[in-house]
Each structure stands twice: as structure tokens, then as C-alpha cells.
Amino acid sequence: MLRPRDTEDLREIVAAAVEKGTRLELRGGGTRAGFGAPRDVETLSLAALSGVIDYDPAELVLSLRPATPLAEVQALVASEGQMLAFEPWGDAASTIGGVVAAGVAGSRRITAGSARDHLLGFSAISGRGERFVAGAKVVKNVTGYDLPKLMAGSWGRLGAMTELTLKVLPAPREAVTMVADGLSAAAAHAAMAAALGSKAEVSAAAHLARGLTLLRVAGFAPSVAARCAALPGLLAKHCELRRVDDADSLWAEAMTAVGLKGAVRWQVHLPPRHAPELVESLASLEIDWAMDWGGARVWIALDNEGEDVRAQAARLGGEAMLVSAPAAMRARVPALPPRAAGLIALEQRVRRAFDPAGVFSTGRFKEDMDADQLSA
To answer: Is 199 helix (H, G, I), strand (E, B) or coil?
Structure first.
């Protein structure tokens, strides 16, 4: 494993890889190393690029290095009564750079957006072995191309981030979870849709397979109390509600699929109204599942190594991403859902602009290898 000591060391390693024609896989905490096809390439650890560079709570801006542990970032902003503008999640070893590179979005995605919406700027080393900077260290920035949106969710295929700037927000003074028991998937979707469309300003809505429907209300204490008092009446025709004081584990299950049973795990994005039909269509496979984002994201866990989940998701206008599976299945089934040929060609050309030699094309994604067919 290659371990650069600083940014210049990293640049030299990438430049050497360009000259030698070798490929490098970027690694922060390594918590998502099992995502995508198995591959045998040199690992480039960014562990030394850790630490906060600048934090200005008054300006709601945080600049830091990519290998900074997510837990440390959350503790830092919490100490100032703030939070990251998006809702991140990850394992204990997760880094902020890995969270952004994976395009993570928690249950507040439907009201707060994802990592790509709040990455203000970054510095990186491209696949050419050159430094480049995009965005700015301010909340309002309209200059140039919006490269931060390309970098977030790119899985390290455009460059190695050396610094990133994120938007932060004041944390709500209070967050309350209201729960409905025993609803079917269809009834839960109807209740979540009604809650999200109501004046209660619900910030997150999820449903677990065992019949728990979760609604989160956050803000100033008097406002939260008033909205929670109004919710039972607003949803009277859908369900009864009760308050749960410690719901962190329930939300973790909804947003990360932790605890779901099955060696194969899919993340499906689809129109929320089709989530109940997706679950019903896969019932014969003995799935475990959880709905998040009001039904727009459905986690499916099972032991079947077929591609029924992807086929059913496509039938319902959605996309299924293979998140985890045995190595043999990951070698056979692409992690990312199929996309139109024109879109794939565009993505390949964008990657080639940043990484003409394919230094960061490790084989994790099948289309990385296909990009070699394009001229630089």
C-alpha cells in the first residue's frame, strides 16, 4: 500500500503511475472497499491527509482534509451547535472524503439534499498528476463549472481530493420521532406521503419491514411540540402515532440497512409510489427490506444471487445498485445500474478529461474498463 505523507508526495505518486501505466485505488477508511467488482490494483492510502484546516461557525463553512474521520467532524460541529448540511452516515472508520466520494445521503435527503448539494469546493490531484481547485470557500459561489457536483459521488475516479469545503448549518434544538405501528408497505407509503405534504414540516420519513413507520420532526422546541401535536390529527385516516424518545437505531436501520438479513444487498431508487409494489414483487425471494426517503429509496437484502431486484426496479422506473454481495456475484454483476449508451459515453469522456491514462480506473466499475476504448 502506498502512503503519501502530504499533498506533494501524493502528486508525485500519481505522476509516477501515469508514466508507468499503473492503476491506483484511493482509500480513506476502507469501509467501502467491498463495493464493486473485486480488483487487484495498488492501493493509495490518503490516511495522512487528515485534520481540520479552517472552521468558521459564523460563516457556516468547514474546510478539512479528506481522511478526517467522520465521527470527529460530527463531534466538532456539534460542539458549536451545528451539523453538516446533509445527513452523512458510515461505519466507525468512515472518513469525510469517503462519504463525499460515495455521494452519501441520509434520511434527510428529501428535505436537505445530499453530499453533492453541500460540497462548496475542493482541491485535488487529477489523474494527470496535476493539482487543481474547484468551487470556493464561501456559501455563495457562481463562478465557473460546478465541478464539486461531479466530484461528489465519483468514487475517486476523477481525482484524489486533498482538501474539501462543506456547508454546515445550525443543528435543530430538538428532534422528535413519531412512530406508527403495524402498517403495510402500501399504507406506510400513503401515511408518509401525507405527512411529508402536510404543514407539520416532517424532515424525514421511513418504514421498516417489521411494520414501523418513522416520521421525524425537528426545529425549535415549541415548534416541534406544536407540529407533533398536530400530526395525529393530520394522519388520522392513515394511522395512530406514538412518540419514541430514542430512535437513533431505527433511523440507522432505515438509512444504512444495518441489521437487515441477507448476504446480498441492493439499494433501489425509484418513484416513491412504486416502493410498495417493488417489495410485493420480490416477496417470494424472502427479502428483508427498509424504505427511506418516503419510499424513494428501498434497501433490499436477501440471499438470492439472481438479478431479480434490478429487473423489478427497472420495470417500475427505478434503478438498483448492488451494494454488497459475495465476490463471485460482484465479479459477474456490475455495481451500478445499466445506463443509456450516450450517457455512458459522456461519463467516460468526462473521466478521460481528468484522468486520460486511466490511473484511477481500477476495475471496480465495468465501464471504467470500457473507457479504455476511447481516445484520450
So the answer is: coil
Residue 105 has pLDDT above 80, yes or no: yes
The stretches of the chain forming alpha helices (DSSP H) are: 7-20, 70-78, 96-101, 109-112, 115-118, 147-151, 185-196, 221-234, 248-256, 275-281, 308-315, 327-332, 341-354, 366-370
Query: What fold characterizes domain 7-170?
Result: 3.30.465
* Among 276, 323, 321, residue whose Cα is nearest residue 296: 276
Which CATH number is 174-254 given?
Answer: 3.30.70
pLDDT score of 345: 87
Query: Hey, how many other C-beta atoms are within 10 angstroms of the C-beta on 284?
Result: 9
Residue 173: its pLDDT value, please? 94
Each domain of the chain, given as residue ranges in start order, spans 7-170, 174-254, 257-332
Return d(Cα 57, Cα 73) in angstroms, integer: 13
Dist. CA 94–CA 39, nearest whole Å:
21
Contact in structure between 107 and 292 (CB atoms under 8 Å): yes
Q: Would you say the CATH fold of 257-332 matches that of 7-170?
A: no
CB 289 within 8 A of CB 316: no
The pLDDT assigned to 146 comes to 82
Nearby residues of 64 by Cβ (< 8 Å), 6 or more positions away: 51, 52, 53, 55, 73, 96, 163, 164, 166
What's the whole-model pTM score? 0.92
For 226-240, 247-261, 325-339, 361-375, which range has the lowest pLDDT when averaged over its residues?
Answer: 361-375
Alpha carbon distances (Å) from 156 to 1, 4, 24, 354, 358:
17, 16, 10, 11, 12
pLDDT at 344: 85
What digits encode the pLDDT tens for the residues 337-372? 988 888 888 888 999 999 999 999 999 997 665 544
Q: Which CATH architecture has domain 257-332?
A: 2-Layer Sandwich (3.30)
3-state SS of 59-108? HCEEEECCCCEHHHHHHHHHCCCEEECCCCCCCCCCEHHHHHHCCCCCCC
- The answer to whether 207 touches 213, Cβ cutoff 8 Å, is yes
